[in-house]
Amino acid sequence: MTRSAFPLLRTHRAALLAIALGTTLLGSCAEVPEIVLREEAMSTEADMAMGGAALSSENQAIAPAAEGADMARSDIIEPAPSDIGQPTPQLVKQASLVLVLTDIDAAVTQVQSIVQQGQGDVLSLQDHRSPEGAAQQVTLTLRVPQAELDAVLKALRPLGTVQQQSLTAEDVSSQLVDLEARLKNLRQSEAALLQIMERSGEISHVLEVARELSTVRESIERMAAQQQNLKRQVAYSQISLTLQSPVAQVPPLRPVGETLGNTWEAATQSVKAFTVSGLKLGLWLLAFSPYWALLAVAGYGGYRLWHSRIDHPVAAESDNG
């Protein structure tokens, strides 16, 4: 090979080396984005996997809670409207009975026996008698348990003739509920005032709280008494029983003007009746006048005959003498 050929060979080698280096650089540049994309894809898949695992763990944690809530809801059984019992009405009953009978003293003894059998009491007894002793009235106030009220009334009615009877009932349920609520609030106020007295140190504060506590306790006692009274009235019913003896009914006195007016009316009616009766008699006499004429003629003839017979014997005796 000649020396002139060496520079050409070096030029070709330099060109080939440049081409090889360029190809290598291009290949390495092309591989970098692919690596970056793969790393990004792998990181995205990892994030998605972690997110899915977190979601699945949350769903797994929520699912039992939801199931537990559903089971709790299924365990709760709402009561049917028919199962809810209505509160018993608190009634205050009062009865009134009026009997008419002859033997009142014996009836009073029977009434006391009936009340004792009904586990009741006779609260009062008043005996009224007229001065002549013709009329008697006994008034009794009875108290019996409300459960025995109907039975006692049923046993009392046959003692005499029922002249009047009544039965009333008043519902005090709302009053009892209101008193119970107010008593509860007052007792809470009493407890709070007692705590304040224990914590209070100054005498003025203690005295003020003591006055307030006294007022609250007074209200509690008053309302408790009202509550007990209402409960007693509900538990026991009251009967007002009146026993009367039969008396002759005396007509009431009328006013003088009304009496005189009635008298005048009765007199005019009598005059009218007498006049009508006279006219009727005249008509009867007129209708029977022919018969009356015949009777008069016959009577007159009989009288003349009797009188002539008496006169002739007297005349004959005078002639003979």
Structure description:
- With 321 residues, the chain is an alpha+beta fold.
- Among the domains are: 96-169, Alpha-Beta Plaits (2-Layer Sandwich), CATH 3.30.70; 174-241.
- It is built from seven helices and five strands, in the order H-E-H-E-E-H-E-H-H-E-H-H.
- The protein has helices at residues 5-75, 104-117, 149-156, 173-199, 203-235, 256-287, 289-320, and strands at residues 91-100, 121-129, 136-145, 161-171, 236-244.
- It has a five-stranded mixed beta sheet with strand order 2-3-5-1-4.
- A hairpin with a 6-residue loop joins strand 2 (121-129) and strand 3 (136-145).
- Helix 4 runs antiparallel to helix 5 (203-235).
- The longest helix is centred in the first third of the chain and has 71 residues, at 5-75.
Keywords summarizing the entry:
321 residues; Alpha-Beta Plaits; disordered N terminus; rod-shaped; five-stranded mixed beta sheet; alpha+beta
- Which structural class is indicated by helix and strand composition? alpha+beta
CATH architect. name of the domain at 96-169:
2-Layer Sandwich
Please give the order of strands in the largest beta sheet.
2-3-5-1-4
| Fraction in beta strands | 15-25%
Biggest β-sheet, characterized? 5 strands, mixed
Return the string of H and E elements.
Answer: HEHEEHEHHEHH
CATH class category name of the domain at 96-169 = Alpha Beta
The amount of helix comes to 55-70%
* Radius of gyration, whole Å: 64 Å
Report the span from N to C terminus.
260 Å
- Topology, number of strands: 5
Q: Describe the global form.
A: rod-shaped
Overall pLDDT level: 75
CATH topology name of the domain at 96-169: Alpha-Beta Plaits
H/I helix tally: 7
Poorly predicted runs of 5 or more residues = 1-12, 14-18, 20-84
